[in-house]
Inverse folding.
């Protein structure tokens, strides 16, 4: 397995992996939703998603990586650096793994790689946003010492 910086030609595969992961995440968060409907919604937005991911790929304050197995992209991850009130912080984002490669330690490799990158950039604090029902991701973050700081509460209105 090889971790490398993502390049523009990777964007279609990155988009596929991102959408697959988001569909699964949404199903965890809203188990009553129909998976086909979720998938259809993401397919409608695929062009915009691809455009957004391409924009993020080009950002200077962001590292976008892909993980390859036998020259096939099987996972993605991002780290970003920002400033708030003069304080530099880092963040992890967009960590997604193709379904058949999950639960094989790849998420741990990605997270370690991104944290090491942020340490080299002299970041002192790292944020990460995780869906409350995404137990595997919550476990992964906990294993790296992340602790909850803010709960965002949402109420759906009819």
């Amino acid at each position: 397995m090889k971790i490398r910086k993502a390049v523009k030609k990777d964007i279609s595969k990155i988009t596929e992996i991102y959408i697959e992961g988001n569909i699964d995440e949404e199903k965890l968060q809203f188990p009553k939703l129909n998976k086909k409907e979720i998938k259809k919604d993401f397919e409608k937005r695929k062009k915009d998603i691809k455009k957004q991911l391409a924009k993020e790929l080009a950002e200077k304050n962001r590292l976008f990586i892909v993980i390859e197995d036998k020259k096939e992209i099987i996972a993605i991850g991002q780290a970003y650096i920002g400033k708030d009130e003069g304080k530099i912080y880092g963040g992890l984002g967009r960590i997604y793994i193709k379904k058949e490669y999950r639960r094989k330690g790849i998420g741990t490799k990605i997270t370690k790689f991104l944290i090491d990158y942020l340490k080299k950039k002299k970041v002192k604090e790292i944020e990460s946003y995780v869906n409350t029902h995404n137990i595997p991701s919550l476990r992964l973050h906990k294993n790296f010492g992340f602790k909850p700081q803010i709960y965002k509460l949402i109420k759906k209105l009819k």
The first strand starts at residue 2 and ends at 5. The chain has four helices and five strands. The domain at 2-143 is CATH 3.40.630.30 (Aminopeptidase). The mean pLDDT is 93.
